[in-house]
Amino acid sequence: xxxxxxxxxxxxxxxxxxxxxxxxxxxxxxxxxxxxxxxxxxxxxxxxxxxxxxxxxxxxxxxxxxxxxxxxxxxxxxxxxxxxxxxxxxxxxxxxxxxxxxxxxxxxxxxxxxxxxxxxxxxxxxxxxxxxxxxxxxxxxxxxxxxxxxxxxxxxxxxxxxxxxxxxxxxxxxxxxxxxxxxxxxxxxxxxxxxxxxxxxxxxxxxxxxxxxxxxxxxxxxxxxxxxxxxxxxxxxxxxxxxxxxxxxxxxxxxxxxxxxxxxxxxxxxxxxxxxxxxxxxxxxxxxxxxxxxxxxxxxxxxxxxxxxxxxxxxxxxxxxxxxxxxxxxxxxxxxxxxxxxxxxxxxxxxxxxxxxxxxxxxxxxxxxxxxxxxxxxxxxxxxxxxxxxxxxxxxxxxxxxxxxxxxxxxxxxxxxxxxxxxxxxxxxxxxxxxxxxxxxxxxxx
Length: 446
Description:
By secondary structure, the chain is mainly alpha-helical. It has helices spanning 3-22, 27-34, 39-47, 51-59, 63-72, 75-81, 87-94, 99-108, 111-121, 128-131, 145-154, 181-186, 193-196, 210-220, 240-257, 271-297, 300-305, 313-336, 344-375, 378-408, 417-444; strands spanning 137-140, 166-169, 175-179, 204-205, 224-228, 234-239.
């Protein structure tokens, strides 16, 4: 046997050993293990896993990889895997599949499965309808507890083992209440559901924004919330695991948008898409850079006479930008969590102004003293201190007013706010410092 034959024999053996090892792992651990492998290697591993496990693993993979798998796996295998998924996971896995491929997959699925997935895919991704799942326990309000228990036990279509609520509906399907499990298990089986159900049950409209839903879960510690349409008909539910994904997604989106990225980019996004996402805001940033350069050019005579002034520009810009972004981060996150109402921004502005004054006095004093000791000119120390103090105050104002103004204009407050705040603090800081320096030169012969 040649060395090449040894290699060819060893490769499938290694693949088989890896597949056997993965069988005993949790789906999320399997996903983490295989997500960086080649597509053919992933498909080979899936051949050794059951449809149920494969479905669980696929839902844990990045969206781009899910789409790639749905596009390239055998149609027969996909049609066996999709029914093993919860409806919301199946809709997500198929959301970016090409229309022709999606049509072929749908033709292979049961009619009920097609109806559920098609319904979910019609809703916006960031709405309650876009993140809800169809699987839930619902009974008629006139059923006895005994009949309700039997109905739930015989419901073979329920694929979710995590359901802990039993919703009660009327003949039209409208949500009327919720049964507690202890009532269902230990209550008098002859009593009707409408006699023991909790009537004050929280719900969300199908059009509710996912960020609003996440805030409700955080505030009231829900584990699940029913979703209703405009007529109050129960059509699905949002679970806590869905909300955890939403929280991570919203936080990532806010963080990316603050620096001028689209909000849907990941480490594995193709480079052409990354360029399209980033280049427009870099062009905006270039324009703001020219504005800053123009402000500095206004004080060219002072810089020519005292070139050492240029050494302090990065310090002024750095501290002002950082202070502004500290305020901006707090304000954008508070807006996202709904902590700032329409009139509360004034109170926030006063608080940040006070913070900016204290920080400005402290940082300005340290910077002014260091400048004095370094250059040996006390007037320069005063100029640096005054410019730093006022720039800190300006950064506080910018950090509050930029996102508040964007929200008033119906624009996402996180949308490149960082670029705007940094530009404002640089322009104001440089203008103040060079203006004070020019006055000092003419008055005290700096």
